[in-house]
Amino acid sequence: xxxxxANTTTTQPQGTDKAVETLSWLPDGCPAWCEYGELHVxxxxxxxxxxxxxxxxxxxxxxxxxxxGHPPYMAVHIAQHYRESEARIxxxxxxxxxxxxxTLDEARELALQILEQVKRAxxx
Length: 124
Ligand SMILES: [Zn+2]
Hints:
The protein is α+β, with helices and mostly antiparallel strands. It has one domain. The protein has one helix spanning 104-121, and strands spanning 50-52, 56-59, 73-81, 88-93, 99-102. Strands 1, 2, 3, 4 and 5 form a 5-stranded antiparallel beta sheet that branches.
């Protein structure tokens, strides 16, 4: 298997791996990657009952922007609604909703295709 690495930083606040108390809608707690365990509460609306990992950022220096401040980046994080059977991967632009969720298989395929294109471009 290919070892994927990138220069990344995190943007979301520190969290814990698991909820402190057992919630009726979350009897088994959070997945290990969920950074919002302490933020889940009993009266969360069903639409808000979602696990999320920290976002990993990859700066995109070729992306032209007029906005000052944080340089543009692509963000990647894991999400899973409490009733979904499998996690999803978000790949998006900055902190916008421009991007899309992918299944784990789709995200893996995209990562492998990017690596293949990088190898081709480098003549490897
Ligand atoms: Zn969670």
